[in-house]
Design goal:
By secondary structure, this protein is an alpha+beta fold. It contains 12 helices and 4 strands.
């Protein structure tokens, strides 16, 4: 009984090995014929580690045919790290054909960093043209103002080549666009006249290239070409007009302030006149009191009072006669 069970177990194991052998025989035999052999044990181990053996075998065959020897363990490690083994292998082949030094470790690092390593190799072989500014960002021109106040609207095209050595940790296209835009604005802003910029637009490219804008980026700038340059608004005149309007409002406010102060001062003077008149009335009201007090103290006699009254009457009569004469003369 035990012997039968042992035979059954051995048979099942043999069937299992036979199944695995038949399952991976095609890959093993294909790799062997291609000169890039991958052992049957490695293929089974890949299957157990949830690695697609076909991806590893195809990548190793392609690399071997291109004269690049990469151990299958490195390819498997990159696959387990969630890397794209196929694109890394294609990038290595493309770099080798273009005589671009690209070790597998660097290619794997670029891929794991989220960059398209194959696209980077293509850009290194076939330079890429970047529009500045990026029209997809909603802005079609770079606007800058020369010293004479005239606005210029510029479109530029930047030809770049990928720098494989700086692709990991290097800045992207957005940094190139931003730096070129800053350089264009600075160059135009330092020009004495917009006419000088229109006469020699290539000066913009030269001065921008001199700044070394590709430092710290994943690209090498080959050229900066001014695709279009248009004259915009007269910003200087507009600013002067706005300043004049602001000065006008300020002067009007100051004049209104002075007018209000003058009106207030006039009202104060009228109030002062009324106050002085009131004081005169109060002083005149004290005269009878003073006369009465003089009578009580014997300082003023009745005859003195009559003479004073007569003098006042004569004075009023002269005033009235003088007034009538003046009116007659006018008539």
């Amino acid at each position: 009984m035990y012997i039968i069970a042992a035979y059954v177990a051995v048979g099942l194991v043999a069937l299992g090995f036979l199944f695995l052998f038949l399952k991976f025989f095609g890959l093993w035999f294909r790799s062997l014929l291609s000169g890039a052999p991958v052992g049957m044990g490695k293929l089974i181990g890949m299957w157990l580690r949830h690695v697609k053996p076909s991806v590893i075998v195809d990548a190793r065959i392609m690399l071997t045919k291109a004269g690049i020897e990469i151990d299958s363990d490195l390819l498997e490690t990159h696959f387990l790290a969630r890397g794209n083994v196929s694109r890394v292998s294609l990038a290595l082949v493309a770099a080798s054909k273009a005589s671009i030094p690209l070790p597998f470790q660097r290619a794997a690092a670029i891929d794991l960093a989220g960059r398209d390593v194959l696209e980077a190799v293509k850009t290194s072989v076939n330079p890429k043209v970047i529009d500045c500014p990026d029209p997809t960002k909603g802005k079609s021109t770079i606007d800058a103002v020369a010293k004479d106040g005239i606005q210029l609207q510029v479109k530029a095209r930047v030809t770049v080549r990928a720098n494989i050595e700086r692709l990991v940790g290097g800045a992207t296209e957005e940094t190139i666009i931003a730096r070129v835009g800053e350089g264009i604005v600075t160059t135009i802003g330092s020009s004495e006249s917009y006419k000088a910029v229109l006469e020699n637009p290539d000066n913009i490219s030269k001065r921008v290239l001199e700044k070394g804008l590709d430092a710290g980026t994943a690209f090498e700038i080959l050229s900066i070409d001014i695709a279009d340059i248009d004259v915009g608004a007269n910003v200087g005149a507009k600013l002067q007009a706005d300043q004049a309007e602001a000065d006008k409002r300020r002067f009007q406010a100051e004049a209104e302030k002075r007018r209000a102060a003058a009106q207030a001062q006039e009202q104060e003077m009228l109030a002062l006149v009324q106050e002085n008149r009131a004081k005169v009335v109060l002083a005149e009201a004290e005269i009878p009191l003073a006369i009465a007090e003089s009578f009580r103290k014997g300082q003023l006699g009745i005859m003195d009072y009559y003479r004073m009254t007569n003098i006042q009457a004569d004075t009023q009569m002269r005033k009235s006669i003088g007034g009538e004469g003046a009116e007659g003369t006018k008539a």
